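Problem 12. The chain below contains 323 residues. Write out its predicted structure in token notation.
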Amino acid sequence: MRVVEIAGGAGPAEALTVAQRPDPVAGPGHIRIRVRAAGINRPDILQRLGRYPAPPGVSDILGLEVAGEVDQVGDGVSRWSPGDKVCALLGGGGYADYALVDARHVLPVPADMDLVQAAALPETVCTVFANVFEAGALGAGETLLIHGATSGIGVTAIQMAKAAGARVIATSRGAEKAEAAGRLGADLSLDAGAGGMEAAIAAFGGADVVLDMVGADYAVLNQAALKLFGRWVVIATQSGSMAQIDLARLMMRRIVLTGSTLRPRPADEKARLIAAVEATAWPWVASGAVRPPVEATFPLEQASVAHLRLEAGGHIGKIVLTI
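Solution.
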């Protein structure tokens, strides 16, 4: 099968090259997917740069989410059959013609959804669900503040929060992105480059939950924005991980500061998360309420170009490889 490898083990986008490897075989409890599309995520870039290695026992091939058809079923798998259209959460291995996955980490593709759109869902929906709805405990009528709101995670978080009956404050850089976040459903969409965000958020009533992909630069803003009993959930630190935190403010407002990663979680925990997503969030996907936009697609051979597009930061929504 064709796979995308990183020449030298780590490097710039140009290090991504197409190579040949033996077709994988589905073992007990696993299925093999004939991959038709693979979502691209920032952890892929970090891995390519040598800063986010694959966990032990996981494929070194990039790619954390795919969509395609079930091609092979291992012993002990009863839910899935060859030909089923599915999307899946992977620990790695998505940038390839075939991918192996624990059968418990797989979701059905809704009948009216194409596989490119489906490939944009598993990593992002699971990340948002685990952090906004589980760790952040966002409820109907509450307000979610999202930084980086036009990223793949951000656009998904807007739609999922609205589907759950919450209000959304979105921040992003540039008027075009702010307008896009508003079109996706944000109740208040702010251009981070225009200034005045703290005052605007306060005038809106503040936030119950913050989904923070920026890190250090927004730490002071987050503490000002959060209401009593607020929850601040960090999932990335693009501006740095060393932040200024007023512990007295956290104490007085009873703010909870937490964060998580998804990829290193044990297989059983991912299976639990997938089951929770299917029960609660997948009906939003099936109804069309959650359909994050796909900014661009690139063939497998242009994985390097796709990485450059994501790194440039001008995208709105997801970037997907077609295979």
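Discussion. The CA atoms of residues 32 and 199 lie 51 Å apart. Students who got a different answer should revisit the alignment rule from Section 12.3.
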